[in-house]
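quick one before i forget lol
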Amino acid sequence: MAIIPNKMFFPTLLIFGMIGDVYSRGPVYTPPDVERLTDRFGRISVNKSYDVLFGGSNIHVMNNGTSVDLNLNKSSGSGLMSKNKYYYGFFNAALKLPVGFTSGVVVAYYLSNAGVFPHNHDEIDIELLGHEKRREWVLQTNIYGNGSVRTGREEKFYLWFDPTQNYHDYSILWNNHHIVFLVDNIPVREIIHTNVIASAYPSKPMSVYTTIWDGSEWATHGGKYGVNYQYSPFVASMKGIEMEGCIVNQRVKALSCSMSSLSSLDPVDGEQFSKLSSQQTTGLQWARRKHMFYSYCQDKSRYKVVPQECTTN
């Protein structure tokens, strides 16, 4: 996971949409209606989708395997790793985040192949960063491709709801055309696969991970506030698991579907997944105008010359 510098860029928020509620960061606006990608794919149980990665004693599967609690306490965090590796796909977790004083706590939902390719790994990250105030969880997105860890491509958002009170969907769409990060089916970020970013575009099969861990060194205000275990255990709850993509056959190193064209058997390579719809584009613009407060593309103290994709993507 990438370390974020202390200095962040705060763009001017535009007045757009309807005010829906009052939030600790100011007014919250009602999100626009969008297609529900999560309704296109089936949901699977915890036991059929994940194996224990670490902290097994802090993992509690419930409701006949449809949900799971991941705990962080002073002894350990906890994490799950998908049984399969995927080359492209749609991935979703409905998460309810820990309540209370959660500074330094990181809940991560991500794809990675670092264990297989330690020197040139790929990664697609959704990281939810705790806060010293109860509701101010931050959503951070990032990608690495072919070991491109020297260039952090982080973007940060405030959420338009309290993520500790109910389950909310956090999704990743990854195919040969683009990577899309979604929250409750609202696109918050799109990375289009162009020649400019091709060398850093995730291109190898990855596993899916869900973890909770201690990120005291960097997660909250650059490490200013660490985890206070007086408030532990910190519990992240997950259900609504979706993993739909090309599964790598571990025995023969083959894919379960073709990657050759838009008409292939890849479940997320059809025309409807090759670009955002007009509704999704409206949702993307809404999320970025109203809720994004940091982008690496605007961080001139970090990058004297901005990465090339910032001017073309």
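fyi DSSP finds four helices and 18 strands in the chain.
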